Amino acid sequence: MQGANLSAVSEFILIGFSTFPHLQLVFFLLFLLMHLFSLLGNLLIMATIWSERSLHTPMYLFLCTLSISEILYTFTIIPRMLADLLSTVHSITFTACASQMFFSFTFGFTHSFLLTVMGYDRYVAICHPLRYSVLMSPGSCACLVAWSWAGGSVMGMVVTMAIFHLIFCGPNEVHHFFCHVPPLLKLACGADVPWVAKGVGLVCITVLLGCCLLILLSYAFIVSTILRIPSAEGRHKAFSTCASHLTVVVVHYSFASVVYLRSKSPQSLEGDTLMGVTYTVLTPFLSPIIFSLRNKELKIAMRKIFLSKIYPEKM
Asked: G-protein coupled receptors family 1 profile domain spans which residues (predicted)?
């Protein structure tokens, strides 16, 4: 971190939504409601899985862990963003900016790794049902979860160290609502900035595409197996166990591809800020809705728990 010590910048200014002064209160109320809904939705999923013994299976263990990573990811970014929407002071210290980047990338990549693990779980359950209890034993599940968190932490550390090893010699205005890589790279100076930008971009895209390809490969085998099931009811039952996960994967990678593969231009600063909302606010908002509505077992368990609270004498 020698480059960071030579930096002339001791703090950054998060421009965020200050380019939309008349909409800041609207944005605050909208994002606050979406954040609270996302938080309550994920907590409800976790509480349901914890309370319902029939959901104590690997698939729902991974879903519970996914909810934890999503809650932590949103807490890394959204509270600060909401505070800035109501404040006139948008400064963030050098250390706080580095910490925010580390935790956002750690939890973000952990989320991607867990989605990949969930795809593997569905592959084993449908393509190798007789070996499921062996391949997805408690020990194996714990290892998969641990490796997902470890992988996310490594990615967070690699990206953060690469960016904050650079020299920031001013200006210090970050055209985003959190410490994200592209706007920070525009503030860095030195001959190694283009190489760091290409290296970080290559590592992130390679890891995300690797996760995406593994999920696609899992579903290729899953679809092939489902099509060989003779009854329509059996095919529908098998596919219904994958529907919620597949929908979340499509939403997750659709927004990620739009954000990372869209063309960059000097006029795209406001567009980058608005697009950042899709993967920091919108995706976490949609995930618990999708899992709650498209997962039949989870939906039945939620209804059962709610009814037991409202009508305890009938349960």
From this structure: 41-291
Q: Residue 18's CB: how many other CB atoms inside 10 A?
A: 17
CB atoms within 10 A of CB 209: 12
- The 10s digit of each residue's pLDDT in 273-304 is 888 888 899 999 999 888 877 777 888 888 87
The candidate with the shortest Cα–Cα distance to 132, out of 241, 234, 247, 33, is 241
| DSSP single-letter state for residue 178 | S
Tokens 């063309």, residue? Answer: 263
On the 0-12 / 13-18 / 19+ scale of CB atoms within 10 A, 132 is middle
Q: How far apart are CA 102 and CA 164, in angstroms?
A: 10
Phi first, then psi, for residue 285 (nearest 5°) are: -70, -40
Q: State the burial class of residue 93 (Cβ atoms within 10 Å of its Cβ: 0-12, 13-18, 19+).
A: exposed
Answer whether 95's CB lies under 8 Å from 74's CB. Answer: no
Bridging pattern class, strands 11-14 and 173-174: parallel
Residue 229, CA distances (Å) to 24, 125, 217, 305 in order: 53, 14, 19, 34
Tokens of 238: 């098998």
| Model pLDDT for residues 99-149, shown as the tens digit of each residue | 999 999 999 999 999 999 999 999 999 999 999 999 999 999 999 999 999
* Amino acid at the residue 111: H
Spatial separation of the C-alpha atoms in residues 53 and 220, rounded to whole Å: 31
Query: Cβ of 98: how many Cβ atoms within 10 Å?
Result: 19
Measure the CA–CA gap between 214 and 207, rounded to whole angstroms.
Answer: 11
Q: Give me the DSSP letters along 210-261.
A: HHHHHHHHHHHHHHHHHHT-SSHHHHHHHHHHHHHHHHHHHHHHHHHHHHHH
Residues in contact with 209: Cβ distance below 8 Å, sequence separation at least 6, in sequence order: none
